[in-house]
Write a structure and sequence with these properties.
heterodimer; A: alpha/beta; Rossmann fold; Dimethylsulfoxide Reductase, domain 2; 3 domains; six-stranded mixed barrel; globular; disordered N terminus; B: Immunoglobulin-like; 2 domains; four-stranded mixed sheet; 6 helices; 13% helix; 32% strand
C-alpha cells in the first residue's frame, strides 16, 4: 500500500484572472484562472461562478433549464500560456536586416532576416517614416491601417484597433490629414448582411433576427431545430465558452429533434444531430427553393401569415412554380444541384411544416461565407417567413451568446439595466465594428490587395458592420482622386490577412509591391503577414499586464480585474502602450492617458459602480463583479413590460404586430423594395432572390480542372488564425507526414480519395489557379463526395520549389477567391463579399520526399533569440 | 480512505479535447513528488481522446473515447515491476513512483491499455496519476475538473454522484480481466441504419416497423421509421447476424440479413406498395 494522497503539493502560488486569449474585439468570455508561481504560469483553471451569484432559470412545461456554475473555455485558452516563450515570440523590436529608408527592398519581405533594435531606434524609424509620408504625399491617406482583428480579449491593453485611434489623433491634433482605414467587412455573416437584411432588416444584428427571450419559446414550443451549418461545439464554444454546449444539451433535454444540414458533419452534428442532410457546398439556396415548392404544391405554408406579414410573395410563388422562367423548382430539380435525394427534400419540407421548427446558426455556417451567399441568406428568410417566423416554436436561434442580439431583452433571463451598463464598451471598438468608416478614405478588407496592386478600385457599400442597408448601394472608390499617390505604407496590427481572408496568396504579392515603402507590424509573434513587415513592434500577451476583463461574450455578464500574471517578456509592451509611446513621440501623448486612468474612467460608467456602489479600488480588491440574473418571476414581469407573454420570445412581437421591421414596408420582403429602388436590374442581386449559377460551383466550366469544392469552417482548436503554433494543439489535431512535419488535416470522402489513389495520411496538394497548399488527407464519411473539408486559420509555412511558392502549413485562405474576380477589370465591385468557403480546387497526392528534395524554406531564418 | 472510481460517460463526451489539455497544463513542466515527475512538453498523453467515425454517409455518428490509465485492481504493470516502483494508493490508484522507477521499461509492454509512457530525459516510466496530488486535497483530477459537460465523473466509489450511471458502467476491454477502476458508460456497439423509401412516389415512408431478429439467440430489437423514413437500430451485438425486416400495412415486406461486424448504413430500403406490386406482377 502506498502513501495517502493527503500529502500536499507545494503551496504559495498567486491566483490571477486573465482574459480569454482570442475572442477579442474589446470584450471577453469568462477569464482563465491562472495560478502563478515564481513568474511562471503553473496551471490554468476554469471559472466557477460563486454560489452567491443568482443564476437564471428558464421554466417550461418540459422542465426547468439553467446553466452549471462551472464555466469552461475552448482548449486554446488553457494552452495559450505555451505562446509566452515560444520560438516565434517577438520579445524586442525587430527590423528587417536589409531594409533601409532609402532602399526598402520590398521583394525581400518575408524572406530576409530580422535584427534586434532598441525601442528608441524603433520609435525614431516609425516617426521619421510617418513624417516622410506626410512631407512627400501631403497626408496620412497613403498609410493603410489594418487594425480590426479579434486579438486577445483584454478591454484596453491588447486591443487591435489603436492604430485607427492614433491616426485619428494625428488628423485631429496635428492636422496631418486622414488615414486610409481598412474596413472590416461583415466577415462571418456575409449572406445575412448582403442578403437577409434586404428581406427583414435587423440592421444592428447584421441581418440576423433578434434573440430576445428566445430560449423561453424554443424550449417550451419547438419540436425540431435545423442546424444550418451551426456548430456550437466549434464556433459557439470559441465565441461564447461552454454555454454553447450546454444550450445544445437543453435542446436534447427538451426532446427537440436536431437536424444538421451541411456538406460536412461538423463537431456538434457528429455528437448531437438526430439526422444529417449532407448537401453540396453552397447549394442551400436550391434546397430552400425546393422546400418552398413542396409547400406551395401541397399547401403546407402559412397563407394567412404570408398575406399579412410579407410583401412580394406572389412573385416568389410564380418563380418557384417556374411560371417566370419555365423551370419549376421541384425536388428533382434541386436534387441535381444539391445532391440531396428528392424524397429527403420532400420529407424535410413536410416535417418542417408539420412540426414547430426553428432554424439555428451561430453565424450562418459555411453557406453564409461563399460566392453570392446573399442569395441563400434571403432564401432562408423566405422559407422561414412561409412558416410564420415568430410564431410559437418557430424562431431563428443563435446557439451561444451572440454579441449583436436583441431588441430589448437578452436571450436568457437578464436584467435589462445590467445589459445596458453592466459591462463597458470601449469606444475604440467602433473602428472595427461601427456604423461607418471614421476616415472618409477607406477600403474594404476584401479589396485591399487590389487597392495596393491594381488601383483604382471601386465598389458599393462601406462594408461597416452596423451600416444601414441603404449604404450597400452607395458608390465608393480608392484612391479618391486620380492624382492620389496610393498606398505607400502599411500599419498592421492584424497579421492575419493571409490566414483568414480572401485570396491570401495575392496579399503576399501586395506586401511585396514595389510602391510600398514601409510596413510596420505590431504583434507578439512572428507569423503569417507579420513575416512581411519591415519593422515589428513587440506586443505583450495578456499575461503580462493589468487590464479590465469585460465579460460580454457569455450569456451571464461580469467584470473582472486582470492583475499582471508574469513579468513582460523581453521588451514587449502592451498594444496600448506601444501606441501611447508613438503618440508621445509625435507630441500627442495626452490622447493616451495612463491605462489605469482610462480603465477607471470606463469602469465608473458601469452598473457595478453606479448602482451597486463598488468603487474602483474595491473592485480591484475583489477582482470581479458577476451580475445576478432575475428570478423567473422577475423575468416574467420584465417581459410583460416589453409586451411578451410568460413563455413568449424571439420574434413573437412581429408575429403579433405584422409590422415594425427595418424594411421599407416594415414587413418581410420577398421582393426587396430597397433593391428595386436602387438596383432593379442587378442580375447578381436581383430584387427577388433566386438560384443563380456562378464560377465556384461544380457546374462551372472551371470545374473540369478543379472538380472539388472546399468547405472551410471556423476551426475548433484555433480561434481563426490564433494559436496554430501551440504544440499541445498541434499534436492533438495535425497529422505527421513522412518527413516528420505536422500537416493540417483535410477531410476527403473515401470515394474521392479512391479516385485519386489517396490513402489516409497521404500528403496532398490542394490547389487552383490561385495557389497551392499542402495538407494531410483524412479519409472520412463526414464530408459529401465532391467536397473537401478544411478549417481555416492554419499558420502559413511557405516553401519554394523551383521558384514556385507552396504553403505546407495548410493555410487554405491563400487560395480563396477575391470578390473582384466576378467582375471585368476596372468594373465596379457591386458586392465586396467574402468567399472563404465554397470554391473549386483539385486535390492530388504528392510524393512529399521528392517535393522537399527540391524545396527550400521561403523564410531565411526564425526569429532571433 | 475511501476507494475512488471514475466513470466516463461517452454519451456526454463531445471530443472537445479539454481533458487532454487540462492534463498537459497540470503536468507539463510541473512535478508533484512523490506522485509524479514533470511530463515532457509533447509526446505523452496521460489522457487522450480517441475519435471513432462510425457508419457511412449520411448515417454517420462519431464516438469519442477518452483513453487513460484505467487503474486496474489487477494491474499487470505492478506485477512486472522489479523495483516495487508501482504501488497502489489508499484510494486504489495505481501509481509509478518516479523516485523508485529504474527506467527498465518492463511495465510498458505489460500494460494492455498502452497507458504507460517513457520519459527518456528523466529515465522514468510515466502515466496518469488521476492527479493524486490533488485528490488528497479534495480536488478533482484536472480532466474531470475541466470537462465542460461533466462526462468524466470522479468520486468515492460509493458516492451518490456515481449512482445513476453505475448499472451501465463497464470496463473498456473487460476481456483483459484487469478490473479497472476507470469505467465507461456508452461504449459503442454496432448500429444498423437506413432509410425506407417508396421509390415509385419519390417519398420516404414513415412509421415502418423495423424488426431486427438476432439469428444467434432470436432476440428482437425494433424501431419505427421517423418522418425522414430513417431508422436506427443501436447497440447490436458485435458479430451477430440479424434478419432485418421492414413492414408496414399496405406495403410489401422487405428483409435483409446483416452481420453486425461494424456500423452500417443500409442506404435506401425500397418498400413497394402492395397494389403496385400486384399491378407490376400482372404485366
Amino acid at each position: 500500500m502506498g502513501p495517502s494522497t493527503k500529502e500536499v503539493e507545494p503551496s504559495g502560488h498567486r491566483v490571477v484572472y486573465v482574459a480569454h486569449p482570442s475572442s477579442g474585439l474589446g470584450r471577453s468570455n469568462f477569464p482563465i484562472e491562472c495560478h502563478v508561481v515564481d513568474n511562471k504560469i503553473v496551471r490554468c483553471l476554469p471559472i466557477r461562478l460563486p454560489e452567491s451569484v443568482r443564476l437564471y432559470e428558464i421554466r417550461t412545461s418540459r422542465g426547468t433549464f439553467t446553466r452549471p456554475r462551472k464555466e469552461v473555455q475552448m482548449p486554446l485558452a488553457y494552452s495559450w500560456k505555451r505562446r509566452i516563450h515560444c520560438a516565434d515570440r517577438v520579445a524586442y523590436p525587430l527590423l528587417r536586416a536589409d531594409w533601409s529608408p532609402d532602399d526598402p527592398r520590398p521583394q525581400s519581405r518575408g524572406r530576409s532576416r530580422f535584427v534586434r533594435i532598441s525601442w528608441d531606434q524603433a520609435v525614431d524609424i516609425v516617426v521619421s517614416q510617418l513624417k516622410k509620408i506626410r512631407d512627400r504625399y501631403g497626408s496620412m491617406e497613403s498609410v493603410l491601417v489594418q487594425a480590426d482583428g479579434h486579438g486577445q480579449s483584454g478591454y484596453l491593453q491588447t486591443l487591435r484597433f489603436w492604430g485607427h485611434y492614433l491616426f485619428e489623433q494625428m488628423h485631429d491634433r496635428l492636422g496631418w490629414g486622414w488615414w486610409l482605414q481598412q474596413m472590416r467587412n461583415p466577415d462571418s455573416w456575409e449572406g445575412y448582411y448582403y442578403g437577409a437584411k434586404h428581406v427583414w432588416g435587423f440592421e444592428e444584428s447584421l441581418g440576423e433576427p433578434w434573440q430576445d427571450a428566445v430560449w423561453d419559446d424554443v424550449l417550451e414550443n419547438t419540436e425540431m431545430v435545423l442546424f444550418s451549418g451551426n456548430d456550437p461545439e466549434a464556433t459557439g464554444f470559441g465565441m461564447s465558452g461552454s454555454i454553447a454546449t450546454i444550450m445544445t444539451r437543453w435542446l436534447k433535454q427538451a426532446g427537440i429533434k436536431i437536424v444538421a444540414i451541411s456538406p460536412d458533419l461538423n463537431y456538434a452534428g457528429a455528437v448531437c444531430a438526430d439526422k444529417w442532410i449532407p448537401l453540396k457546398p453552397n447549394t442551400d439556396a436550391a434546397l430552400y427553393l425546393a422546400v418552398a415548392w413542396v409547400w406551395i404544391a401541397e399547401g403546407l405554408y402559412d397563407r394567412d401569415y404570408v398575406a399579412t406579414h410579407t410583401v412580394g410573395f406572389e412573385q416568389f410563388k410564380e418563380h418557384v412554380l417556374g411560371r417566370d422562367d419555365e423551370l419549376p423548382k421541384t425536388t428533382q430539380w434541386a436534387e441535381k444541384i444539391t445532391g440531396v435525394p428528392a424524397h429527403t427534400i420532400t420529407a424535410l419540407a413536410r416535417e418542417w411544416a408539420r412540426r414547430r421548427t426553428t432554424l439555428s446558426v451561430y453565424f450562418g455556417g459555411p453557406k453564409i461565407r461563399g460566392t453570392m451567399s446573399h442569395l441563400v441568406g434571403r432564401l432562408e428568410a423566405y422559407v422561414m417567413a412561409m412558416q410564420g417566423i415568430g410564431k410559437p416554436g418557430r424562431q431563428f436561434l443563435r446557439v451561444g451568446a451572440p454579441s449583436f442580439d436583441k431588441k430589448a431583452l437578452a436571450q436568457v433571463p437578464r436584467y435589462p439595466a445590467v445589459d445596458k451598463t453592466g459591462v463597458p464598451f470601449n469606444p475604440v471598438l467602433e473602428y472595427a465594428i461601427g456604423r461607418a468608416p471614421k476616415s472618409p478614405v477607406f477600403v474594404p478588407r476584401t479589396l485591399v490587395a487590389d487597392a495596393v496592386l491594381n488601383p483604382p478600385v471601386s465598389w458599393r457599400g462601406s462594408t461597416a458592420a452596423l451600416a444601414d442597408s441603404e449604404d450597400q448601394f452607395k458608390a465608393y472608390q480608392f484612391p479618391p482622386a486620380p492624382d492620389h499617390p496610393g498606398i505607400k505604407m502599411i500599419w498592421n496590427e492584424n497579421g492575419n490577412q493571409v490566414g483568414s481572408w480572401t485570396h491570401g496568396r495575392r496579399w503576399i504579392d501586395a506586401l511585396r509591391h514595389a510602391g510600398l515603402e514601409f510596413i510596420v507590424g505590431v504583434h507578439p509573434w512572428l507569423e503569417n503577414d507579420q513575416l512581411f513587415s519591415d519593422l515589428i513592434l513587440p506586443a505583450q500577451t495578456a499575461f503580462e499586464h493589468e487590464d479590465l476583463i469585460a465579460v460580454r461574450r457569455s450569456e451571464i455578464l461580469a467584470l473582472f480585474y486582470q492583475e499582471r500574471a508574469i513579468e513582460p517578456v523581453g521588451e514587449a509592451r502592451s498594444d496600448y502602450e506601444i501606441h501611447r509611446l508613438i503618440a508621445q513621440a509625435l507630441g500627442i501623448g495626452s490622447a493616451f492617458p495612463p491605462a489605469q486612468e482610462w480603465l477607471k474612467r470606463d469602469y465608473e460608467q458601469t452598473f457595478a459602480f453606479r448602482q451597486l456602489g463598488v468603487s474602483w479600488e474595491e473592485f480591484k480588491r475583489r477582482r470581479f463583479v458577476i451580475y445576478d440574473c432575475p428570478s423567473w418571476q422577475e423575468w416574467v414581469e420584465i417581459k410583460k413590460q416589453h409586451g411578451y407573454g410568460e413563455r413568449e420570445g424571439g420574434l413573437a412581437w412581429f408575429w403579433k404586430a405584422g409590422q415594425g421591421l427595418q424594411t421599407p414596408s416594415g414587413k418581410i420582403e420577398f421582393v426587396s423594395q430597397r433593391i428595386l429602388q436602387h438596383a432593379p436590374d442587378d442580375r447578381e442581386r436581383p430584387p427577388l432572390a433566386q438560384w443563380i449559377e456562378h464560377a465556384e460551383l461544380s457546374t462551372s466550366a472551371k470545374a473540369r480542372r478543379y472538380p472539388l469544392l472546399v468547405v472551410a469552417n471556423h476551426p475548433r482548436l484555433r480561434f481563426h488564425v490564433q494559436g496554430d503554433d501551440i504544440d499541445w494543439l498541434r499534436e492533438m489535431w495535425k497529422i505527421k507526414g513522412p518527413d516528420g512535419f505536422l500537416y493540417e488535416p483535410c477531410r476527403i470522402h473515401r470515394s474521392d480519395a479512391a479516385a485519386r489513389a489517396i490513402a489516409h495520411g497521404d500528403i496532398v496538394m490542394v490547389y487552383n489557379d490561385r495557389g497551392k497548399v499542402l495538407f494531410a488527407a483524412c479519409l472520412s464519411e463526414r464530408i459529401i463526395p465532391g467536397a473537401v473539408y478544411t478549417e481555416h486559420g492554419a499558420r502559413m509555412d511557405l516553401i519554394e520549389v523551383e521558384g514556385e511558392i507552396i504553403d505546407r502549413g495548410g493555410d487554405i485562405n491563400l487560395i480563396t477567391p477575391s470578390p473582384a474576380e466576378k467582375y471585368q477589370p476596372g468594373e465596379r465591385v457591386r458586392i465586396p463579399e467574402m468567399n472563404v468557403s465554397g470554391f473549386l480546387v483539385e486535390v492530388e497526392k504528392v510524393d512529399i520526399g521528392k517535393l522537399l528534395a527540391n524545396a527550400r524554406p521561403h523564410r531565411a531564418g526564425a526569429a532571433p533569440a | 480512505m475511501a476507494k475512488k472510481r471514475m466513470f466516463i460517460n461517452l454519451r456526454e463526451c463531445t471530443g472537445c479535447g479539454l481533458c487532454q489539455i487540462a492534463c498537459k497544463d497540470e503536468h507539463v513542466g510541473n512535478g508533484y513528488l512523490p506522485w509524479s515527475a514533470p511530463q515532457p512538453d509533447t509526446g505523452q498523453f496521460w489522457i487522450k481522446v480517441h475519435c471513432q467515425e462510425r457508419g457511412q454517409i449520411p448515417k454517420v455518428a462519431v464516438t469519442y473515447t477518452p483513453l487513460l490509465c484505467v487503474h486496474c485492481e489487477n494491474a499487470p504493470c505492478m506485477k512486472v515491476c522489479p523495483d516495487q516502483a508501482i504501488a497502489r494508493t489508499e484510494e486504489g490508484l495505481v501509481w509509478i513512483s518516479p523516485e523508485k522507477c529504474s527506467g527498465c521499461r518492463l511495465c510498458q509492454p505489460a500494460c494492455p491499455y498502452d497507458a504507460i509512457y517513457f520519459n527518456e530525459r528523466l529515465n522514468v516510466a510515466q502515466k496518469c496519476t488521476l492527479c493524486a496530488h490533488r485528490i488528497g486535497k479534495g480536488q478533482l483530477p484536472r480532466c474531470a475538473d475541466l470537462c465542460p459537460r461533466d462526462a468524466i465523473l470522479f468520486a468515492d466509489e460509493d458516492d451518490a454522484l456515481l449512482e445513476q450511471l453505475r448499472p451501465e458502467a463497464e470496463a473498456l476491454h473487460a476481456e483483459y480481466g484487469t478490473r479497472p477502476r476507470v469505467e465507461y458508460v456508452g461504449l459503442p456497439r454496432p448500429f444498423v441504419a437506413g432509410t425506407v423509401v417508396d421509390a415509385a412516389r419519390a417519398e420516404v415512408v414513415a412509421n415502418v416497423r423495423i424488426t431486427a431478429r438476432d439469428l444467434f439467440n432470436d432476440r428482437e430489437i425494433t424501431a419505427l421509421t421517423d418522418g425522414f423514413g430513417d431508422f436506427w437500430l443501436r447497440n447490436l451485438e458485435k458479430g451477430h447476424r440479424y434478419a432485418i425486416k421492414a413492414a408496414k400495412e399496405g406495403y410489401q415486406e422487405s428483409v435483409v440479413v446483416v452481420v453486425a461486424e461494424e456500423d452500417r448504413n443500409l442506404g435506401e430500403i425500397r418498400l413497394p406498395r402492395k397494389a403496385e406490386a400486384g399491378a407490376a406482377l400482372s404485366h
